[in-house]
């Protein structure tokens, strides 16, 4: 675009912005091809749209959006609530490139009450706009099945697909089926059940689907008592069976006091790429609807913006008219006749906690599914969690951990293990013999090893770690810091893994002075840290045992004149240990290495200390 063309475009857009009304509404940004690339809502259209063009945007995505705008359209509405609903519908209709994307890739089932002379009730995934009533969708299928089973046990409704019109019934076109004979249907097809009685059952079933079970239960109890008073005990027993079924269902579904009626509950969890929103609808203390869904972020949207959009989506989808909405934080949107509540205690707080529990589980399930398809995604997530927990400048792509091993200073060794992208990189593991330290001095040994490793890495321009972990607490961290920072002048973050009295790792330390990083011991990050610690300990102790074993063998056999490496190997292969060589008879030794060498062994192999 030339400078002249840009000036003309700026003047054109400025003219539109300055003439926008100070009213609620929705605005649409269009690109060169006339496609809608972004839809937004505003309490004040002029002020909101003007903010896009009046400042430099720090967000790269927002700056990119503004650079693509070639035209602006808008729709004025009566209220902010109308703007919210219109925005939601426009996003679903046009799917603009820069708007959040609702990831609703499953067709969840609903319960249909058909618009027929004798209605049917069944599960379906297809919505037909023919006057039928739909309840749902239900993301939790067991809840849907439990409702259908309850209605089936309470009301003998037809399941056939016959066209039960008054004319067909009068003409006697139908015969009863097995359902009639086993008393699951009262035979409306042959006129054995009146339409009024049948529709009464349908109406009560609808109330159950709406969650209004308390009133139906009270009516059943009153009817049962009236029948018993009239000595109609068999009929009272039939009502009692239904009453018990309904009460059993209510006891399982009621989560809080039944005083809480017609309330919507929302919660949200998000990360840098997506947001997960849970919706619960509560009627008479019972959760009547529960649904969790995902938004794909496009423009670094805030949790408040996404939750506001989610509220509009769910209330429209479920045709909710609740006068109270519970949210985890204040929402700056006005909805006529609706109160927003951020509960701090009591039953409403319990409902919010239940919603949060559901959305966190949904997020975890989605992450696990994604990690199965892309295993490296789990490593990236772990590294990001470590980075956030320790406030590191960059992802810890390479982590190195050190450990010492010795017995009273004898055969002192150290080991370094390397984890790349949270996975062991065994070709980078290194073993070290302690050369300058005499006696059991772990701090001095650690200093020597760290100094040797990173001095060489600097001299050879080798790869340095993004994070160093010591198998020890504050003391080990400090001696590593003295070498890395004070002596070598390197800036590498250092963490420490401290153990409790039972020698179990229970704390992750970081910083100077070291502080405890708050982390659950069963979290994935803590398990990774424990895995690194176990690996370096295994590697160090294995090296120490090998060296100790070799040292013992050398002191016993290699000092005997006339016994070479080949003979020693032959003897150890046959007798397995120096102890068994010492215990072997002359004939056994001679059979293996000859009489001359057998005699040398027996005369010169020192007795066991």
From TrEMBL:
The UvrABC repair system catalyzes the recognition and processing of DNA lesions. UvrC both incises the 5' and 3' sides of the lesion. The N-terminal half is responsible for the 3' incision and the C-terminal half is responsible for the 5' incision. This is UvrABC system protein C. Keywords: Cytoplasm, DNA damage, DNA excision, DNA repair, Excision nuclease, SOS response. PROSITE patterns: GIY_YIG, UVRC. GO terms for molecular function: DNA binding; excinuclease ABC activity. Gene3D superfamilies: 5' to 3' exonuclease, C-terminal subdomain (1.10.150.20), GIY-YIG endonuclease (3.40.1440.10), UvrC, RNAse H endonuclease domain (3.30.420.340). Interacts with UvrB in an incision complex. Belongs to the UvrC family. One of its GO terms (biological process) is nucleotide-excision repair. PANTHER family: UVRABC SYSTEM PROTEIN C, UVRC/OXIDOREDUCTASE. Signal peptide: none annotated.
